[in-house]
Amino acid sequence: MTIARCLALLTLTLCPLAAQAVPLTVQLRGPGGQPLAGAALAVEVKGRPAKTSTAKAEIGQRDRQFTPQVLIVQTGTAVNFPNFDTVRHHVYSISPIKVMDIKLYSGTPTEPVVFDKPGVAALGCNIHDKMSAHVIVVDTALFGRTDDKGKLTLDLPPGEHSVKAWHAAQKSPTLQSLRLSVPAAGGNATLTLAD
Prior knowledge:
This is Methylamine utilization protein. By secondary structure, the chain is mainly beta. 9% of the residues lie in helices and 48% in strands.
């Protein structure tokens, strides 16, 4: 078989997969209609893996702040907590999805923390009370944070999908479930959080 024929077969094989996803810009709004900047948004597509065993992420500590203050990861992600400050930190969470306690340390702990349950984990530092962050754990690889206009663009297959969303201003520390309809041509959609 010639190289040209192999490339043609590969193109025919892969094109239907590429054609299945269309760009959709989702705007997430609060109950008062205001755009929610910095919100976590995750789209669950049937047949796609919910968990990962290879993904890695990190939340550092710099200038006595967590960075980033909101981290979104797929279920099963190993998260490192490097300390770039000259002072030691004591990172903890008592959230039901991940109870953790990294005692006073400098540098980077030897073992990352694996976030193996979906939901929202609130983090703090036992030494610096003003330090806080959230790890949003979702059962999909299709996720992101909304921009300053509350928008996020993802390539999604057309159809009905389940969405999980969270924003720091919510009254509840849990992910909200929403429905999303993706038209065959893609486009725009607006979703509204309940609280």
